[in-house]
Design brief:
Distance between the termini: 72 Å
Helix content: 40-55%
Largest sheet: 10 strands, mixed
Strand content: 5-15%
Number of helices: 38
Mean pLDDT: 81
Length: 825
């Protein structure tokens, strides 16, 4: 047929469909209908041929029927009245001896999607549920789901639901799976299909009969079932064992997700299941499908959060191939960072070094960032590689290296000397705003060590008029101010020129307001300026936790085998958009607002303490109105070595000497308390550390979650102003201990309240001894409380002695732990 316009083409097709000569020739008639379908797929409006196509469906040719049904289902909503003409033909086809014709008629009858035709469709669908052919039953089951979707507010037919439940035992596995899907859709408002023990075991026994997606559907629905006994649980796990190592990744992932759901209270079983899926996951990483490889890598990252060493022996499987797309290479590099140890660090760094010169700039920058994260543990080797990369003088490589060095010195300040030497001359290569912001931050923090810092800064100031980046301008202001404080003679003139431009000529209000702030701050004096601008150069406390602490499986189990691992990065990545590392902090959980709970700020924690000291209740201490503020501070910093020395030297003295001698020779005191916080031992180290740092309590070391005994070591400095006295500073070091013992009977004996010598928590027998001591004349109070499981033992040691400050700090600590525990529950 020659090329014609759309109207002419439709007119020509109508003439051909109405031609008796064409209708009498089956092959010509079919080819004409095929031309109609081809024109429809090309976007031509052929809805005007609806009546001619309705006539064409009355044929014994199955191929022609399929073509006509495609057309009718596409244009039925535009011609609801003419669609009634095809119903009789479809109902007649539902009684055809050929099961293929019957299933085809049922499928297209429900695909018309017209509410006015529902009454004509119900009877054929009901008959189709009992058809002798499995293909017809498959279509009929899904047809009822389509019918319910067409009229969701209609009343559910109980007879249909019962029939669908009966068909769960249909010998055809596809019919069984389709029944599950249909019942899920029809009973959506009631929570979906009801899963009981007989149905569960029936589905599991027939699991292998279904195809891949059928097995995934069955495993997904079974997550709602909870075994009634431990024996039943292990029976189900035995039936699932073969699917856990299935060669089909979707089945393996669905099975593992069901394992994690059923065994949420059995961490040992969960860990064993993760070990079993290692081989299938590694096989999926080598899949031909790129999408499958990426998905497997994302889920491996999820598993590494709880088992960091799961893939340690197979790290070479995550080396990047030359022809792999950039998004897979970057994800593999993230996994490699998680697998670094003393044995493979040299090989991994050598491999990552090769990726730094990749033709794809994003891949090269991701490799440099990965080297920087490894540098937190192996700084010397990584700095050598990063310094060598600066010699390449390539813009995107230099920018990524400078940003990585900035982040590295924030965590590892011992690297600052090497970084300062490497920065000489790199400003000539930097062109992007993120790299220049990182360089300016390094000049601000370590400007006194970099001899060329003023000259480098002068280049930036001379070009400030042509600078397009708002972030660079604001960072330049801060850098010039901080460099002026340490090198005033070389920077004074530059600072004046920069402030004049930003105040008088700059059009952006943010830059102008920042310049005005600094100008007015200089009028307040150098000392006030230093207090504001001379912040911390690094945060070495972040280096205490190298890598990713092991997390409980329950934290990510619900997101396994979903799209969530694909949407978000599963490892800690440095943001390239920030200008200063100080602006990046750990955030507590969204619903956890400790600042509201304790009414404290980031720089100072103020607690109104009680004068009497006769109670250790958090509520009493927080509610007291006596004006005796307690402030917490992280300065001076206490190194892990100093903490260990102070902690250990107190223990033998406490064991060998009595409380009286302890008071005479050592100006310190010890306090032990038991707190019921069920969720704290399973809390992630990041959440606990963030909550503590919010209140200026520094955590030094953690035991991984689910490890017994579970310990956390912490310290802080307190300033407690007594009435009429100057504030008194003390150092408090502490330990949180959970041994796993249940149903302890804990006694809290406050001994020597007036003297403030020792406060200890004892067992029930020690409580009786305390009562006897009180009867002999010792001042104090006894209280015995019975707790359930998961009691945290808190041990605090203070020097010098300040009982009210110690009790005030204990109240703060208890409130933090209770808040975290309640949020986790």
């Amino acid at each position: 047929m020659p090329y014609l316009g759309s109207e002419d083409a439709v007119r020509e097709l109508r003439r051909a469909l109405s031609n008796p000569n064409v209708q009498s020739d089956q092959l010509r008639y079919r080819n004409t209908i095929l031309k109609v379908i081809r024109a429809m797929s090309q976007g031509v409006d052929v809805s005007g041929l609806f009546s001619e196509m309705v006539k064409a469906c009355a044929t014994v040719d199955v191929v022609q029927k399929k073509l006509v049904y495609v057309f009718l289902c596409s244009y039925a909503t535009l011609n609801p009245e003419l669609s009634l003409l095809v119903i009789n033909t479809l109902r007649k086809d539902c009684q055809d001896p050929n099961p293929m014709v019957r299933s085809l008629a049922l499928r297209n009858m429900t695909n018309l999607r017209l509410p006015s035709l529902v009454e004509y469709v119900e009877q054929p669908l009901t008959a189709g549920l009992k058809d002798r052919a499995a293909c017809v039953r498959r279509v009929a089951v899904l047809g009822w789901a389509k019918l319910h979707n067409l009229q969701p507010n209609s009343e559910i037919d109980a007879a249909v639901v019962n029939e669908l439940y009966t068909l769960l035992r249909d010998p055809d596995p596809v019919v069984m799976v389709n029944c599950l899907r249909a019942l899920e859709e029809i009973l959506k408002e009631e929570g979906g299909v009801a899963i009981n023990k007989p149905i569960t075991h029936h589905l599991l026994k027939r699991l292998k009969e279904s195809d891949v997606w059928g097995q995934c559907e069955v495993l997904r629905i079974l997550q709602r079932y909870r075994p009634q006994s431990e024996d039943e649980l292990f029976d189900i796990l035995s039936l699932l064992d073969a699917s856990l190592v299935s060669p089909h990744p979707p089945v393996m992932a669905a099975t593992l997700s069901l394992f994690l759901s059923l065994c949420s209270g059995l961490p040992a079983v969960n860990l064993a299941a993760l070990e079993r899926v290692r081989a299938p996951l590694l096989a999926a990483c080598g899949s031909v499908s790129r999408e499958m490889r990426f998905t497997a890598l994302c889920h491996i990252q999820l598993l590494l959060r709880s088992l960091p060493g799961l893939m340690g022996a197979h790290y070479k499987r995550f080396f990047c191939g030359y022809a792999e797309p950039a998004y897979i290479k970057q994800r593999k590099m993230q996994v490699l960072v998680e697998l670094v140890n003393d044995e493979n660090v040299a090989m991994l760094l050598d491999e990552l070094k090769g990726y730094c010169t990749d033709v794809n700039a994003d891949t090269a920058q991701a490799a440099i960032s990965a080297i920087g994260r490894i540098g937190r543990s192996y700084s010397d080797r990584c700095l050598e590689i990063l310094t060598g990369l600066l010699g390449l003088k390539q813009e995107h490589i230099t920018s990524a290296v400078v940003q990585t060095m900035r982040d590295l010195v924030w965590v590892c300040p011992q690297c600052s000397d090497t970084v300062c030497l490497a920065l000489e001359g790199c400003e000539e290569t930097l062109q992007d705003s993120q790299g220049r912001q990182a360089l300016l931050w390094l000049l601000a923090v370590y400007g006194e060590r970099i001899s060329s810092a003023p000259y480098t800064l002068e280049v930036f100031i001379d070009g400030v008029r042509s600078e397009a980046s708002l972030g660079v301008k604001m960072e330049l202001l801060t850098t010039t101010m901080r460099l002026f404080l340490c090198r005033p003679a070389e920077t004074q003139d530059m600072l004046g020129r920069l402030l004049h431009y930003c105040i008088e000529e700059e059009t952006d209000m943010c830059v102008r307001d920042q310049a005005l702030l600094y100008y007015r701050l200089l009028h307040c004096g150098i000392e006030e300026t230093q207090k504001v601008l001379q912040g911390r150069r690094s945060d070495p406390s972040l280096g205490v936790l190298i890598g990713r602490p092991a997390e409980p499986i329950s934290q990510w189990a619900c997101s396994f085998n979903t799209l969530k691992p694909l949407r978000q990065g599963s490892v800690e990545t440095e943001s390239a958009s920030r200008g200063s590392p100080e602006h990046v902090t750990f955030d507590p959980k969204p619903n956890t607002d400790l600042s509201d709970t304790l009414d404290c700020s980031q720089t100072e924690t103020v607690l109104s303490g009680s004068d009497s000291g006769g109670t250790d209740s958090s509520a009493d201490v927080l509610a007291s109105s006596v004006a005796a503020p307690l402030s917490l501070s992280l300065l001076p910093t206490l190194s892990p070595e100093e903490f260990e020395r102070l902690w250990l030297q107190r223990q033998p003295l406490h064991a060998e000497q009595g409380a009286d001698k302890l008071e005479e020779k050592e100006d310190h005191m010890c306090l032990e308390e038991h707190i019921q916080c069920p969720a704290i031992p399973h809390c992630s180290p990041q959440s606990l550390q963030a909550a503590m740092q919010l209140l200026n309590i520094q955590t030094l070391a953690f035991t991984p979650p689910h490890t017994l005994p579970w310990r956390v070591y912490l310290y802080t400095h307190t300033q407690h102003a007594h009435s009429g006295d100057t504030p008194r500073s003390t150092l408090i070091v502490g330990e949180l201990l959970y041994t796993g013992e249940a149903n302890q009977r804990v006694g809290v004996v406050n001994k020597g309240m007036d003297d403030g010598d020792v406060v200890e928590g004892r067992e029930e027998e020690q409580v009786k001894q305390g009562e006897e001591a009180t009867a002999d004349g010792l001042s104090g109070s006894e209280s015995v409380r019975k707790y359930g499981e998961k009691i945290i033992k808190v041990t605090l040691k203070q020097q010098p002695r300040d009982y009210k400050a110690l009790k005030g700090f204990l109240s703060i600590l208890k409130t933090v732990l209770h808040t975290l525990s309640s949020e986790r529950n």
